[in-house]
Design brief:
Number of strands: 12
Shape: globular
Strand order of the largest sheet: 2-1-3-5-6-4
CATH superfamily of the largest domain: Leucine Dehydrogenase, chain A, domain 1
Helix content: 25-40%
Strand content: 15-25%
CATH class of the largest domain: Alpha Beta
Order of helices and strands: EHEHEHEHEEHEHEHEHEHEHEHH
Structural class: alpha/beta
Bound molecules: 2'-monophosphoadenosine-5'-diphosphate
């Protein structure tokens, strides 16, 4: 029988998840249906009940519903994975007969992609995360003390920064407002002896979605070996151009992470581990058309 899955979010038209999941299913000759469904904030519970009544086997949850999915999982006493529990956000649900599983594959997806792009030794890496919204919650639990020692999180406004710092209390994390950060790292750089201030910079804001610029010091990108914009599109984002023009050594978008987190969801649902590289190339090609 054909297994049915879906991705729920708002907006959802742009989602590449159905194409990615179908490419995975083809690798294993699985009979697989995957659709995208627009679900507005506050109505996730009803939508999930509808999926269950229609015999769906699971779903992905995307912006802006990941926290709502977590709250529903708690309310309904579904099994919550450690990584979803730590993130207080859910992006994957698996509806099996006896129990439902709520998981979050964003963090592991990001790390698998960072490894692909050469990030190996992390213990001494200085990491800068820009943003303090939903996307950051998904990835922050992966920055644990056994892997990292130095993680700064900067954000434009105080509100989200405060909220985040309450959920993720750790002496590993430094929370700082973007204006204060600018004062700490102004645009002046030692051009003669440049040395990277950060080993990894992650843009986890929604600025690339809206096409807005981020007012952040240019100097932080100089010689930075790896910079990631979690957003993806057919062309490099304004943030990616800015980072490269400011002296970043390698700048990547979020497509690799997207495919990796999707592969982890696929594994949860089917117990098969798909090959990711060919799917990234296929989607990149389809995006360029
Ligand atoms: P998401 O779920 O995609 O993370 P979100 O929860 O609405 O979306 O969070 C958006 C994040 O991007 C926030 O950290 C936001 O900063 P504020 O907390 O100050 O609103 C950040 N953001 C959006 N546009 C930005 C911009 N132009 N410059 C800097 N930060 C921006």
């Amino acid at each position: 029988m054909k297994k049915k899955f879906a991705v729920l979010g708002d907006p959802i038209d742009h989602s590449w998840s159905p194409i990615i999941q179908k490419l995975f299913a083809e690798q294993f000759n699985l009979s697989f249906e995957y659709e995208k469904i627009k679900v507005v904030k506050g109505s996730l519970g009803n939508s999930i009940n509808e999926l269950i009544s229609k015999s769906f086997s699971g779903c992905n949850i995307t912006v802006p519903l990941k926290q709502e999915a977590y709250e529903l999982s708690i309310e309904n006493k579904w099994t919550i994975s450690k990584r979803a529990f730590n993130a207080k956000a859910v992006n994957t649900l698996c509806f099996s007969k006896d129990n439902f599983l709520a998981d979050n594959t964003d963090g592991v997806g990001l790390f698998r992609d960072l490894n692909r792009h050469g990030l190996s030794k992390t213990k001494d890496a200085k990491v800068l995360i820009i943003g303090a919204g939903g996307a950051v919650r998904g990835i922050l639990p992966m920055f644990s003390k056994d892997k990292f020692l130095n993680v700064s999180i900067v954000n434009r406004s105080d509100r989200n920064l405060q909220l985040l710092s309450k959920v993720f209390k750790s002496d590993l994390f430094e929370y700082i407002k973007i204006d204060n950060f600018y004062a700490k790292y102004p645009n002046s750089v030692d051009i003669e002896f440049p040395c990277p201030m950060f080993d990894l910079i992650i843009n986890a804001t929604s600025a690339s979605v809206s096409g807005d610029e981020i007012k952040i010091s240019k100097s932080i990108f100089l010689e930075c070996p790896l910079i990631v914009d979690l957003f993806y599109s057919s062309a490099p984002t304004a943030f990616m151009d800015f980072a490269l023009n400011s002296g970043g050594l390698k700048v990547i978008d979020g497509l690799g992470m997207l495919v990796e987190q999707a592969a982890e969801s696929f594994h949860i649902w089917t117990e098969n581990r798909p090959s990711v590289d060919e799917v990234i190339s296929n989607v990149r090609f389809l995006m360029s058309k």
